[in-house]
Specification:
single chain, 8-stranded mixed β-sheet
Amino acid sequence: DGTINTVTIPETNILIVTVTSEEPDISFRALNLVVENYSTISDYLFANAQLEVIKDPVVPVAPSNAMNLRARLPWVIGMAMVATCGLIVAIYLMRDTVKTPSAARRRIDARMLRTIGHERKNKTFRSKLLRKNAAPLIINRLIKKSFIEDNMSFASTLEYHMRRHKQQVVLMTSVGENEGKSTVAANLALALARKQHRVVLLDCDFRKPSVHKIFEVDTDGAPLLTQWILGDGEKVQDCLLPDKKHGVVLGISKATGKGLVRLLNNGRLAQLLQSLRREVDYVILDTPPMMAAADVEAIAALVDTAVLVARADFMPIPSINEGLDRLRKSAPEVCGFVLNNYRTTIL
């Protein structure tokens, strides 16, 4: 099962015989049969022919028509890159997430207050050097102007809504983690403070507080909102930390696993909010993600309105709408949602 090829070297009586087959042993055996039977066959053409083997048959150790992989390597790499890009685009398009502001308005069951564009973290040399993963704040001079305008526009929209409905306390939450909820809340507080409002930002994420990290506050020795709610302190000022540099008042917290039920149900947080309504213009509550805990439902009953932060192309749209439904059942009002971290390009 193969092919026998013969080539004659001109002006000589030398023959080069080769056997090609899919199996190396078949090629070897066939070539040996040619050598053994040549004299018998040649007698039909000319008598007394003598065959002298110059080079004995050998078993082939490599294919005679092997691929030149090195020559094909650029083509293979190019095709692999095209296939990978196509797969990424297909996965991106097939994911049931919010990819554009128009899709957000059409598919999310709430009013879109504003789109906030993407902004890199660690914009300062110090944060890059220390690898602190610093949040992008509108007070940073290195932040893009478009990012500042997005946050200021969101603050104006929310301020108009709350002033029109005579509201002071707003709750900020998200469906999942890492959607930028705390950063949006911090920039909202800074934007309102720029408008000469008295603003208090309370870190009510008692499981993973982050306000002290965003504003780079050392919690050692500082007044803590969690301790005050648990009964350590009587005056409202005992749990607040004025940040004169940024013009806001912070209520920072430390992660706690014990006494979490007391933090939510002992009435101290409601007492604090009632006191703050008389002393400041706006109170912003940074609460945990809804998928991480059920704390939001307990806190939402104490506020005037709520805002959901939805990161672009992150959470499935059904999960976002389910989160809004849960929020509506506990909060007096859901003002709308913010489409955060929106990029104009896929990559």
